[in-house]
Amino acid sequence: MSHLAPAHQVRAVAPRSTWTLWLHWILATAICGVVGWLLPTLSMLLLFPQSYNYTDDNAIGPLIVSGCGWILLIGILVGFGQVLVLFRNVKGCNWRGWLPFTALAEILIAVVLLLSQRGGLYDGSVGLPALLRLAIAGAIAGICQGIVLSSYIRRAWSWILANLVALPISLLIGELVVRIFLPTPLYEPALFTPDAEVRAETFRLYLVGWSAGAVAFSVITGGALAWLVCTQGIIVYENKR
User: Fold this and answer.
1) pLDDT digits (tens, 9 = 90+) for 221-239
2) Angle of helix 98-118 relative to helix 60-89, nearest 10 degrees?
3) The whole model's pTM is what?
């Protein structure tokens, strides 16, 4: 037993396969991330199908449905999917704090992104400002989840770095996939427009880009988690069971 560990501390059994942990993480995070974006977006388009719903003050309804849905659902669904993976693959740890801290991270990220946009720090293009915004968002997610992770894994600070890198890369990959398979860049269209055809095309573009980005984010963070578990091992405190 390590000299750093108190007497009531024991080492849990690591996952039988870090590859299985990685694969499960990719599937859960990517699927839940896409569903968390898809449900509010489809709800907005179905509840507000008319052109006047996206004009002037009438656009408040679609904004509330989509915005609140994105803020609440993405964090909750992704956190839920990830915590199932952790309970299944990393035994002996109490991962119940993962879901609320992931949801908290999503809310904090939404606030930071909104403030930066209202402050004129972001013009909607895929450039350095967008990448910096997502790097900050990744750091927030990494800090919130790292609080839980640090209870069981040493050097959990590297989880912050993994998320900080993963989100900007996911944006670039999403943009690249859209440019390869679809003619229109990801950020040129808009969902909140009276033109129904533009909304439909935008939905298709966002779905492709978001899905590609979600997979990229899942691959990077899942690899980081598998590496941490494999190299650092898992520490369980008997009084936390």
Assistant:
1) 999 999 988 887 776 555 5
2) 150
3) 0.83
CB of 62 closer than 8 Å to CB of 202: no
Q: Which two tokens stand for residue 11?
A: 């080492």
Domain containing 215 equals 13-240
Amino acid at 131: L
Total domain count, the chain: 1
DSSP-based helix, strand, coil % in the chain, nearest 5: 75, 0, 25
Q: Cα angle vertex 148, ends 147, 154, to 5°?
A: 80
Instruction: Tell me, yes or no, whether 1 lies in a domain.
Output: no
Please check whether residue 199 lies inside any domain of the structure. Answer: yes
Tokens of 228: 């941490």
Find the helix packing angle between 18-47 and 196-232, rounded to 10°: 160
Q: Is the dihedral of CA 105, 139, 230, 237 positive or negative?
A: negative
In a domain, 206, yes or no: yes
236 assigned to some structural domain = yes
| Closest CA relative to residue 233, chosen from 93, 26, 67 | 93
